[in-house]
Design brief:
alpha/beta; binds iron/sulfur cluster; binds S-adenosylmethionine; 10-stranded parallel β-sheet; binds 6-(5-methyl-2-OXO-imidazolidin-4-yl)-hexanoic acid; 349 residues
């Protein structure tokens, strides 16, 4: 029996099946596969669900920057980070819509708005619902990441038309206390449940390169894959090391281990969009190409993430052209499977 037989059944009926019963040891074994075998499995499963020449573009905008009371060790926006980042108030509707128009003109199909909040106040929800309505009016998909949500807040965002809510696990439940102490892993799961119950699509992933072990990466991926419904979008971020954050100087992950994480995410969440997220500014074309071969089918596009740089649009366009890849709102989905456990479980899948 070879390594493949031990980790995934060869049967064409089960390879790439949507499963919610992954074990830690199965997923750790995927991480340890010979690299060519891992990439083959990931690309095979990717092709069952997506045209591999397509990539979806999302653009980020920080609608409220800095001064965050949380202590996330990676984040330049934490008030505990010793950075000279200027804290700002919530942007007004016109400023946000002007950025959204630019994003649409540049080929983005989803506009993601992020706020450096622990959790929004109810009066913030009034304001951000206005942003959702405005951005949707431009014909863009909308995504927000605002911190923890209560069930009524999630329902109000959903009613305003918000398509996706981003709330990351960030890391494994085991490693989590070394990264964040001001909110628990369970708080995150609760918010994700509130988002689901309100009928929104879930965008949930994490960060690689914070000093976590392979077992931690596997545990984070198991937690994502064993949710009752897979997140529709799974952002895999490479830590952007920002001077003055607690994680400045942490040992860097080997680039091929980052690719492995993308590949394993693709294998265990076959129909989800896997986004090659933060960290592309420091990646070579070759590394990004490997990430696409491993099953990434989405990126953040635009010269800025929230507060840190991202490749310029023309640089990305040249990369996609060199790779013979083109953009597509669905990341090339061929509609053979959906991330959901139960069809029709929420409204805007
Ligand atoms: N404040 C909200 C929250 O934390 O839920 C929303 C914004 S927060 C910046 C969104 C996500 O960005 C984090 O959960 C984390 O995964 C990612 N992120 C933040 N700083 C990062 C960094 N330096 N490198 C990679 N990803 C980062
Ligand atoms: C996600 O997983 N990555 C994005 C988005 N969701 C909100 C944020 C990346 C932030 C990188 C650091 C910064 O630019 O501040
Ligand atoms: Fe605040 Fe979000 Fe940054 Fe944590 S990740 S410090 S909650 S902005």
């Amino acid at each position: 029996m070879n390594a493949l037989d031990r980790t995934l059944p060869h049967s064409s009926t089960t390879l790439g099946a949507i499963r919610h019963d992954w074990t830690q040891s199965e997923v750790e074994a995927l991480f340890l596969l010979p690299f060519p075998e891992l990439i083959f499995q990931a690309q095979t499963i990717h092709r069952q669900n997506f045209d591999p020449s397509k990539v979806q573009l999302s653009t980020l905008l920080s609608i409220k920057t800095g001064g965050c009371p949380e202590d996330c060790a990676y984040c330049p926006q934490s008030s505990e980070a010793e950075t000279d980042l200027k804290a700002s108030k919530l942007l007004d509707v016109e400023t946000v819509l002007a950025e959204a128009r630019k994003a649409k003109e540049s080929g983005a199909t989803r506009f993601c708005m992020g706020a450096a909040w622990r959790a929004p106040k109810d009066r913030d929800i009034d304001k951000v619902c206005e942003l959702v309505e405005g951005v949707k009016g431009l014909g863009l998909e909308t995504c927000m990441t605002l911190g923890m949500l209560t069930p009524p807040q999630a329902q109000r965002l959903s009613a305003s038309g918000l398509d996706y809510y981003n709330h990351n696990l960030d890391t494994s439940p085991e490693f989590y206390p070394q990264i964040i102490t001001t909110r628990t892993f369970q708080d995150r799961l609760d918010t994700l449940e509130n988002v689901r119950q309100a009928g929104m699509n879930v965008c949930c992933g994490g960060i690689v390169g914070m000093g976590e072990s392979v077992a931690d990466r596997a545990s984070m991926v198991v937690t994502l894959a064993n949710m009752p419904t897979h997140p529709e979008s799974v952002p895999i971020n490479l830590l952007v090391q920002v001077a003055g954050t607690k994680l400045e100087g942490v040992a860097r992950v080997h680039p091929l281990d980052f690719v492995r994480t993308i590949a394993v995410a693709r294998i265990v969440m076959p129909a989800s969009m896997v986004r090659l997220s933060a960290g592309r500014e420091d990646m070579t074309d070759e590394l990004q190409a490997l990430c696409f071969v491993a099953g990434a089918n989405s990126v953040f596009s635009g010269a800025q993430l929230l507060t840190t740089p991202n490749p310029e649009q023309d640089v990305d366009a040249a990369l996609f052209s060199r790779l013979g890849m083109s953009t597509d709102a669905k990341g090339g989905s061929i509609g053979t499977a959906v991330p959901h456990a139960k069809a029709g479980s929420h409204h805007n899948a």
